[in-house]
Write a structure and sequence with these properties.
The complex is a heterodimer of chains A (212) and B (544). Chain A is 33% helix and 25% strand. With 212 residues, chain A is an alpha+beta fold. Chain A folds into two domains: 7-83, Helix Hairpins, CATH 1.10.287; 90-196, Immunoglobulin-like (Sandwich), CATH 2.60.40.420. In chain A, the strands form two sheets. In chain A, strands 3-2-1-5-8 form a five-stranded mixed beta sheet, with no helix packed on it. In chain A, helix 1 (7-38) packs antiparallel against helix 2. By secondary structure, chain B is mainly α. In chain B, 66% of the residues lie in helices and 1% in strands. Chain B has 17 helices and two strands. Chain B starts with a helix and ends in a 45-residue tail after the last strand. The chains are: A alpha+beta (212), B mainly alpha (544).
Chain lengths: 212, 544
């Protein structure tokens, strides 16, 4: 299911490499098993020294080259999009510290859960107060490291109104596994309502199923 | 043994029986014989392997339930750090070159020893010292909890004894450099008469490519570790941003060594597979030169790809694109090797003995490791996969499924030449099957969990990951039982095994031409070499 602006492309990249890999892996495995049965010494006691075959060796140099260049290209195209932050993106400051996340919106509101409107590009400005962390939203298939002294940016747009898990993906000490929060993607009206009266009670997601 | 001694009394005593200047344990720890040094490395290495495997067992067990199962978070973090440090720096990096490489490189070249035997012994002492220094931290300040990568600036924040561990790794680096230097020189200078570069067995080619990486890349690790020590003790800002350092610089320096180190780990294992495939197919290897050159190509290209560990750090778009492109180039020589190994089975006369089974599972598992590596080379996909279980599973497919399975294959292959005894083949086959099943249950599950977003180095997990964790943990039990059965079988073979023939597998390389166990200086007469190393079906054919 497509739940963000990058997921379908990441999934397409994965599928592309996966299908090629699966075909090759099955090919290699079946060939090994077939040869072992066919050329077992009980069936073939006269082995033949074949030192090589130019045509075959050229083939399995050229074909992998073409395949991996295809993979490279797929990844490049998808990645270009991740790198270009749209002009109209909503800006949020993210601070990572051992072991919590803090979000500061343009109007000064701060939260520990990230609220965003659905289908809105969000530009996260990432800063660390101590060691390296990494802001990872598996449901949107995107992450970026939060490095002290280095102001990284990442962006995404959630296309479904739901909760997405956020993990810290860079090991940061004792409570690393508990440096957890959520992105809550709200319908535009609910978000605007909450944002205008910031500080009021946290809004609820209508389809409150947790992302996976 | 006694009746046997009668007909070989003209021969030198073998390397296990020979009496040197020292007796007993000193005869080992002061010995400059490459074979004894190889076995001393093997002894330590297997102890470290079993210790780190035990840590892995407890890590998996901790993941059995959500929340605390056995230990607190700090302990878990120390466990995965120490598991990684031991496995990487004490087991997989020195691994095959130090053990089987030491033992068999001079034998395969037709040489009496390595080029610098005393330097070789020094390398072993450095290895032992480095290991002891790391473990000293147990009593002084606690073992590190940084992950085996020691990333800055967490390495400054933690209260554990990082400097001691880092100093240990620094010392281990010298052991590695000296071994590489020794091996490269040996291959340049001490090949038997008639053995050109392309008559050298492919295991030697693997060690040759490895030797160069050890010599060229390891100093960078040394420098990096030294800088960490300088920063921590003198508070000069190098990597710590709080005092003006750059944590990304640390990652560059660390991976400039640690990525090529992956090829230090895998190339010798590929060499072992290149020995086993022709021997058990009773035919020459397919594409000898392609395999030899691809080792060099992997070493060269592999030295230029370190930035693919850093796609998410915020390094520039251009850097990411270049590192992604170069990463894919490594895939090409790797594919060539795998396909040549499979083609070596074609029209052979195959004996399905334990070493071949391990070699075949190497090809299967390493291929999965390679394919999942390609997935992480894909830029947008890596952004998702980075720092998840997918990465952990991938490098276990490569380093465990690859290097360690290669080591197991090599142990089963050369065991009769090292100890003159034979293990029980049926038990070796059972151990192999358990390992193959357990391995995939553990690590394939982790691949799936990683793709679904399970981050690595997590003490705890969300409920929806629990099924995967349980499955992987059960897989670890199957895998470990396979490994234990294998070790018990080998130990039993060592103590009570039947006497093995001189050349039980019909190998064509020089080590198999030595009668029984090799004597101190390997060859009564330095052999002269004609033709290729794997010509099974010429006059060099050895009757079984």
């Amino acid at each position: 299911m497509n739940t963000g602006n990058f997921t379908s492309q990441v999934e397409a990249s994965f599928l592309f490499v996966f299908v090629i890999s699966l075909v090759l892996l099955i090919g290699i495995t079946v060939a090994m098993i077939y040869f072992i049965i066919r050329y077992h010494h009980t069936k073939n006691d006269k082995p033949k020294d074949i030192h090589g075959h130019l045509g075959l060796e050229v083939a399995w140099t050229v074909i992998p080259t073409i395949l991996v260049m295809g993979m490279f290209y797929y990844g490049l195209v998808g990645y270009e999009k991740m790198d270009e932050i749209p002009e109209d993106a909503m800006k949020v400051e993210v601070t990572g510290r051992m072991w919590e996340w803090k979000f500061t919106y343009e109007n000064g509101t701060t939260t520990d859960t990230l609220y965003v409107p659905v289908d809105q590009a969000v530009d996260l400005s990432l800063n660390s107060a101590d060691v390296i962390h990494s802001f990872y939203i598996p449901g949107l298939k995107i992450k970026r490291d939060v490095v002290p002294g280095l102001n990284n940016h990442m962006w995404f747009a959630a296309d479904q109104s739901k909760r997405y898990d956020v993990f810290c993906a860079e090991y940061c000490g004792d409570e690393h596994a508990y440096m957890y929060t959520q992105v809550v993607a709200l319908p535009r009206e609910s978000f605007d309502q909450w944002y205008a009266g910031s500080g009021s009670a946290a809004p609820q997601v209508t389809s409150a199923d947790t992302a996976q | 043994m006694a009746s046997h001694a009668v007909d070989v009394d003209h021969r030198e005593p073998n390397y296990l029986e020979v009496r040197g200047r020292h007796d007993g344990i000193l005869g080992w720890i002061m010995s400059t014989d490459h074979k004894r040094i190889g076995l001393m490395y093997l002894f330590l290495l297997l102890i470290f392997f079993i210790s780190a495997m035990t840590l892995g067992f407890f890590m998996r067990l901790e993941q059995w339930t959500v929340g605390q199962t056995l230990m607190d978070a700090k302990t878990y973090n120390t466990l995965f750090t120490v598991h990684g440090v031991i496995m990487v720096f004490l087991v997989v990096v020195p691994g095959i070159p130090a053990t089987l490489g030491n033992f068999f490189l001079p034998l395969q070249l037709g040489a009496k020893d390595v080029a610098f035997p005393r330097l070789n012994l020094l390398s072993w002492w450095l290895y032992l010292s480095g290991a002891l220094i790391i473990f000293l931290a147990l009593f002084y300040g606690g073992l590190p909890d940084t992950g085996w990568t020691f990333y800055a600036p967490y390495n400054v924040r933690t209260t554990t004894n990082v400097p001691l561990a880092v100093f240990g790794v620094f010392i281990l680096g010298f052991s590695s450099i000296l071994t590489g230097l020794n091996f490269v020189t040996t291959m340049h200078q001490m090949r038997a008469p008639g053995m050109g570069w392309f008559q050298m067995p492919l295991f030697c080619w693997g060690l040759y490519a490895t030797g160069w990486i050890q010599v060229l890349a390891t100093p960078i690790l040394g420098i990096t570790m030294l800088l960490v020590l300088v920063e921590k003790t003198l508070h000069i800002g190098v990597f710590n941003p709080a005092i003006g350092g750059d944590p990304i610089l640390y990652q560059h320096l660390f991976w400039i060594y640690s990525h090529p180190a992956v090829y230090i780990m895998i190339l010798p294992a590929m060499g072992i597979i290149s020995e086993i495939m022709p021997t058990f197919s009773r035919r020459t290897i397919f594409g000898y030169k392609a395999i030899a050159y691809s080792s060099l190509a992997i070493a060269l290209a592999g030295s230029l790809v370190w930035g693919h560990h850093m796609f998410t750090t915020g390094q520039s778009f251009t850097a990411n694109v270049i590192f992604s492109l170069l990463t894919f180039l490594v895939g090409i020589p790797t594919a060539i090797k795998v396909l040549n190994w499979v083609a070596t089975l074609y029209k052979g006369s195959i004996r399905l003995e334990p070493p071949l089974l391990f070699a075949l599972s190497f090809i299967f598992l390493f291929s999965i490791g390679g394919f999942t590596g390609l997935m992480q080379g894909v830029l947008n996909l890596d952004i998702h996969l980075h720092d998840t279980y997918f990465v952990v599973a991938h490098f276990h497919y490569v380093m465990f499924g690859g290097t360690i399975m290669g080591l197991f294959a090599g142990l089963h292959y050369w065991f009769p030449k090292m100890f003159g005894k034979m293990y029980q083949k049926s038990w070796a086959n059972i151990a192999w099957a358990l390992q193959l099943v357990g391995f995939n249950m553990l690590y394939f599950t982790m691949l799936v969990m990683g793709y679904n977003g399970m981050p690595r180095r997590y003490y705890d997990h969300l409920e929806y990951f629990n099924f995967g964790h349980k499955l992987a943990t059960v897989g670890s039990w199957v895998l470990i039982s396979g490994i234990l059965i294998m070790f018990i079988n080998l130990l039993h073979g060592l103590l009570k095994g039947e006497k093995a023939p001189s050349n039980p597998w019909g190998g064509t390389t020089l080590e198999w031409q030595i009668e029984d166990l090799p004597p101190l200086e390997n060859f009564d007469e330095i052999p002269e070499v004609h033709g290729g190393p794997y010509d099974h079906n010429t006059e060099a054919e050895v009757a079984k």
